[in-house]
Amino acid sequence: MKNFQSGRYVQQGHYKSFQPTPINRAWRLDNMELIQLLGQADRELGRLDMYSDYIPNIDLFIKMHVLKEATQSSKIEGTQTNMEEALLEKEDVALDKRDDWEEVQNYVAAMNGAIAQLQALPFSARLIREAHKTLLQGVRGTHKQPGDFRHSQNWIGGATINDAVFVPPVHTSIAELIGDIEQFLHNDTFYFPELLKIALVHYQFETIHPFLDGNGRVGRLLITLYLISKGMLKQPVLYMSDFFERNRSHYYDNLMRVREKNDLLQWFKFFLVGTIETAKSGITTFDNILKLQKQAEAQIRTLGSRTANAQKVVNYLYQRPMIDAAKVGEVANISPASAYKLIADLEQFGILKEITGGKRGKMYVFDDYLQLFK
Fold it and tell me: For the whole model, what pTM was predicted?
């Protein structure tokens, strides 16, 4: 890595674009600090993945992990939707916030769709384009070639290309550069640790910026998808966007540092520290979920004949911790009167909390659970 050259600037008339160096080649790992960080990141990732085996009904909680990632990844791009708003139905979202809400929902759909496609598709350019198509469906980027690599020049920062912070490579080189990424990811001739592989691919993807819009969100989505495709995660439980959002300036600075100073080592360290912190945070969240689950089960067992219906509602809340009386009735298959009685029981336990303050159209949230993801 000492002799790594990130690329070169190429004159394009009145501006210069950056042409990255291909990454499909042999890499030598010779920094002991990085090797130590890599070992720690692998251990923490393994600990996090163990929860996929040991937590009963882990699928109940995965949806909230995906929603948190969708919210945080979109927030980096300027979307303002918070988790409470993301949990609402579309008709309950204020008109001026619906575009942001839809972008978050699209991210959830893109992640879930791509994970499902991994059963039949390899981690590939096709998978990336399909995810991008879902991401931009029906939102502000819908006219920016969803699912297609760009056919024109784009840029990052600045009002025009002339004062841009960074200008990615020309569109005619995208197919070759993305092909190089594919070859690198599936290259079994040269060994390179998987976490460093996806760290390098994330940097390269963001540098290529192959789409007219949505590059950041797709690039972050690829991290989790790759780890699942390689069997390092059984479930989508590691999401880096929260770490990137909290360290946004360092995130962008470290990407630019690779391009301008060939400092790949600093980017790798940043990425691995993020992996360690994110995995530890995920482990803490799962531990707290288990404690909360145990407490809730003990409380609803005191309800006698209503215990089974209460458990149905609580299981629903683990996936979507916001509910109204109509949904309680639907989930438990009970009358409106029984639904309100059950809500009162769950409010008494502190499982549900009314958040609207009105007499009609009341909305309730499983606040203790929701706070674990915030």
Answer: 0.92
